[in-house]
Amino acid sequence: MTHSVDPIMLSIPERLETDRLLIRAPLWGDGAVINEAILESLEELRPWMPFARTAPTQEESEKHIRLARLEFLKHSELHMNIFNKLTGEFIGCSGLHRIDWDIRSFEIGYWIRTSCSGKGYITEAVNGITDFAIRELEANRIEIRCNAKNVKSAAVAERAGFKLEGIFRNNRRAESGELGDTKVYAKVRGIEYE
Ligand SMILES: CC(C)(COP(=O)(O)OP(=O)(O)OC[C@H]1O[C@@H](n2cnc3c(N)ncnc32)[C@H](O)[C@@H]1OP(=O)(O)O)[C@@H](O)C(=O)NCCC(=O)NCCS
């Protein structure tokens, strides 16, 4: 028996709020602030994020964000941009990826602009997006995957209460070309939440 629905028919809110953050679907025009944040953060992003291999132009960032909006509207990937609720400053990107609508399984990804790191914003965003996935999307499984060497990313998963399920060995190539391991964290319905 399949539980799948046609995802295009789902009603999915385009925004959520946490104590300090506004987290919303990408909008036409977000490219400029995202480009500024990527350029500021290239050194920290480069070891982990393929898009930071070379500095993007503003036009490339705008094109990327427009495609991300279209994917959100199709409900194939729920990209989300994170802003400071009070100041409106762009903080970073997150979202729900690798969606399986039959299982209702989602993976949370994230990166932060360097000037906003170390303040708990990403942990707050992950907690907010996890609640959103449970409440609005009836998630049965929410994953966080990271390079086993990415200590800061694993710390986010652990701070947000995700359980380490295992380590997949030699299943990724880091940006350096080096083979590496993947840590798989998850929260599942019936165990980490009802
Ligand atoms: C992974 C990444 C998003 C983590 O960012 P971060 O700023 O360390 O994470 P948070 O925003 O949750 O902040 C946590 C830090 O703020 C501190 N902090 C301050 N106030 C806090 C609060 N209210 N709540 C939680 N933590 C708080 C924590 O102690 C922690 O500091 P520490 O790293 O010195 O221990 C960032 O390193 C990054 O973008 N890396 C490059 C891209 C990447 O690797 N993405 C993940 C791919 S899987």
UniProtKB/TrEMBL annotation:
GO terms for cellular component: cytoplasm. It comes from Paenibacillus rhizophilus. It holds the Pfam family Acetyltransf_3. The keyword Flavoprotein does not apply. One of its GO terms (molecular function) is protein N-terminal-serine acetyltransferase activity. InterPro entries: Acyl_CoA_acyltransferase (IPR016181), GNAT_dom (IPR000182), Ribosomal_N-acetyltransferase (IPR051908). It comes from the Bacteria. Residues 32-191 form the N-acetyltransferase domain. The keyword Iron does not apply. Keywords: Transferase. This is N-acetyltransferase.
